[in-house]
């Protein structure tokens, strides 16, 4: 994995709504992401989708700095160049029902300014990667929910992005497709930052190299799935200063997914006790972790 | 993918062929509704001017339809909730909108052109002369349709709501149709539906560039708004300036050098002038000579035998040896039997004159000789007037128009003495044309 920082977010705040309905969807968020699959985990309303939208340059930040691939997203002159290297699948994925799958991906290749000479190969590759090559001639409206999602991923991949932002990408996929999709994500993440917003801990367990836990618009913990699982197996401790540690020896019988789920629940509980001022927790790697060691830090 | 590929994709996505055919069919249905047997009062002159006048009138309906379709297509991404996905892509959004609006505008324009071709095609078998500056009428109407598409695209782009497109169509229909009835000063600034250029007329040369610049600048200005490209605001502002100047000029220029002050003649008429080439006589080679206006030359073959029969009847009383189609109110030379204008004589997609219309026209020719109206006869119809009019009708074989017994008796006496009849008819025509009431009263008592 490259050490290069591809996504850098500093003190990000996003205020949504107006007047009495105004709320801070993201509040003082810091994040540094390199190549790899980064799972964004958090309850509903944690700010995951808002963060992904800001990273996709769809939603302007209210304050703070965001740099993607070394480019400030506020730099209007370089935004077009930046967007050529972003792939994005929104949570609410609209599509053109009359397009064939191939036309749909082709159209997005054009929108992403993939050179015409390379577009044909890029479209074929994207369709093969999501397993829709044999359905390329089908109309979008004839696809199942899972296939539509895969077509959405194909459009996100067609420009071979260095920052890939996927909001609930596995929703609607059957188990077999999910396994294949996780494998694809790992492959893509060799030289790209893949940010996956998900509710499914299986996705985190199966595909993510890093996890970012969010709660109330801020990052409450970062680490690896293994670290989160370890926290789940051994339990977290809160010492009143907002600093957490691992306690106990855990159970070796726990499955990874269920351990992650328990770790996720424990981290959120601890974060709520610590309050919004507490620093994010850096989850220790299982091999390096020691009982009760303080692990507070920012970013991954 | 190239721009051409995207254009083809947008065409398919928009259902371009369907949109074009649907719009064309709408126009053709309007055209069919104008024709007999659906509409018994309707007339068809089989001239390009008449066809284009219909195309212009149908713009009152088709223009709002075009705007509605364009607005619906422009609001498609919003309805499909694709805003986020599209906003994250590199290509400037105005290029995407240009492809979408361009495809739908092309489809709508094609539909309008098909309708125009169908309508204008209806005159081809009889058309003898295309009319002066016919292309300008087509150009201005095409620009008007593009403007409707631009207005629709702008509304679809900026105003959310599923009901916006149909509401826009209704509002545009009202705004387009009402000025025709109001005859407002600004009526000609409504780019669709108001280009009334009839037979023997043409658009004034000085109006054409101004009108084209007015509509064209509106297309550019509203098109920029529809595309939503802020960098082009200078283009939009410049177009707005051109539009204002042209609008002002169009209020003044058509009236310069004309008889009468602005407002005296209907505003719709202020953009047109007579087309001298349209009324040049086209005559038969053999005698007695029958002439029609060049614009109706396609009817000469059918009209000539009828006119010659009438010439024979009239020639018994008047020294006429030539029949000629003249404009309304024109009497012509003394030796010319005036034929009234050949309006409403055509049949769509068929050559020659409509037999029913030809028969009516023949009757009208003779009636126009014998009918007279004098200011002294306002609200009254004196007995002597009925007598002289009926006598003249009977002498010309128009029994259907005669009911007065005194007139019948006088006609019978005159027919018994051809010399007297010729003298009577000559006096009658002179007196009726000059409204010499004492002389007419004298003729009634002949």
UniProtKB/TrEMBL annotation, chain A:
PROSITE patterns: ABC_TRANSPORTER_1 (PS00211), ABC_TRANSPORTER_2 (PS50893)
Pfam family, one: ABC_tran
SMART domains reported for this sequence: AAA (SM00382)
InterPro entries: AAA+_ATPase (IPR003593), ABC_transporter-like_ATP-bd (IPR003439), ABC_transporter-like_CS (IPR017871), P-loop_NTPase (IPR027417)
Keywords: ATP-binding, Nucleotide-binding, Transport
Ranges for domain ABC transporter: 7-241
Family assignment from sequence similarity: Belongs to the ABC transporter superfamily.
Protein name (record): ABC-2 type transport system ATP-binding protein
Native species: Quadrisphaera granulorum
TrEMBL record, chain B:
Origin superkingdom: Bacteria
Keyword Transmembrane assigned: yes
Transmembrane domains' residue ranges: 14-34, 54-75, 96-114, 134-155, 167-187, 207-228, 235-253
UniProt keywords, alphabetically: Membrane, Transmembrane, Transmembrane helix
Transmembrane helix recorded as keyword: yes
Protein name: ABC-type transport system involved in multi-copper enzyme maturation permease subunit
UniProt organism field: Quadrisphaera granulorum
Source species taxonomy: Bacteria, Bacillati, Actinomycetota, Actinomycetes, Kineosporiales
